[in-house]
Design a protein that fits this description.
The N terminus and C terminus are likely disordered. The protein has eight helices and seven strands; from the N terminus they run αααββαααβαβββαβ. The chain is globular. The longest helix is centred in the middle third of the chain and has 23 residues. A hairpin with a 3-residue loop joins β1 and β2. It has a five-stranded antiparallel β-sheet with strand order 6-5-4-3-7. The protein has a two-stranded antiparallel ribbon with strand order 1-2. It is an alpha+beta fold. It folds into two domains: 173 residues, Arc Repressor Mutant, subunit A (Orthogonal Bundle); 70 residues, Ferrous iron transport protein A (FeoA) (SH3 type barrels, Roll), CATH 2.30.30.90.
């Protein structure tokens, strides 16, 4: 989620976050419907930044969420007291098992909503992220499950991100970026960062959507751009943009996770 974007339910910079759950029901067994929207955003951010299992620094969370460091630290203490986070001094925070379940529940809602907006309502893929940010906190699990069923139980969202199952299972193994691909290698695009609408419009115009085949032809020295073939079209892409495009490893010939490419 964009640090510059203000979302419903997220506290303004410097504001103290609201309590994460009812005090009487805090702890690892606190029901999900008592976790507040700011806490859901926080847990989702910890998951997204620390997907590889690393501890996440509160400074990284503050940047990601667009909040003051003090507010982020205060929320970390509250979520730790609720049994949703563990805190490692000098390293950062990690999700507990309960925290991971809560984060994946929010991610499922977000990604199903994005996919429904594209495939059922005809939204372009560059407009669904902010809509899903607003709706993910208010949509019930029952509604989200019906939305998923209505569009064929998709396994990925329009940008290629995997959708967690109802049981919290997700195939979210780290993937290399296009920027890391060797010259001469052919890869398949799996996923594109969804946070910047202009980026999504630009890569769609280049044909860099989930499922597209790309071959790296040249790499300019001194961090220069790549020359790539997207299908039969040759074009250039700068490294900062290429880092936002995730691909299947060159030796991995599995089909792309996205069943539907959206532009």
């Amino acid at each position: 989620m964009s640090a510059a974007r203000s979302r419903r339910g997220a506290p303004a910079r410097g504001d103290a976050p609201r309590p994460t759950a009812s005090p009487a029901r805090s702890g690892p067994d606190a029901p999900f419907d008592e976790i507040t929207p700011p806490a859901e955003d926080y847990l989702k951010a910890v998951y997204e930044i620390g997907r590889a299992g690393d501890a996440v620094a509160t400074t990284d969370l503050a940047h990601h969420l667009g909040l003051a460091a003090g507010s982020v630290s205060g929320m970390a203490r509250r979520l730790a007291d609720a049994g949703l986070l563990s805190h490692e001094p000098y390293y950062g925070v990690r999700l507990t098992a309960a925290g991971r379940r809560a984060a994946l529940r929010t991610l499922r809602r977000h990604r199903v909503i994005e996919t429904y907006l594209v495939h059922a309502l005809g939204y372009p893929w560059d407009e669904v992220h902010p809509e899903a940010e607003r709706l993910e906190h208010s949509a019930s699990d029952k509604l989200v499950d019906r939305m998923a069923a209505a569009i064929g139980e998709p396994t990925t969202d329009p940008h290629g991100a995997p959708i967690p199952t109802r049981d919290g299972v997700v195939d979210d193994a780290p993937c290399p970026s296009l920027a890391s691909v060797d010259v001469g290698a052919a890869v398949t695009i799996l996923r594109v960062s969804d946070e910047d609408p202009e980026l999504l419009r630009h890569v769609a115009e280049m044909g860099l959507v989930p499922g597209a085949s790309v071959t790296v032809r040249e790499r300019a020295p001194f961090a220069g751009p790549l020359v790539i073939d997207v299908g039969r079209v040759r074009t250039h892409i700068g490294l900062p943009l290429a880092e936002q495009v995730l691909v299947a490893a060159p030796h991995d010939r599995r089909p792309p996770r996205s069943r539907r490419a959206s532009r």
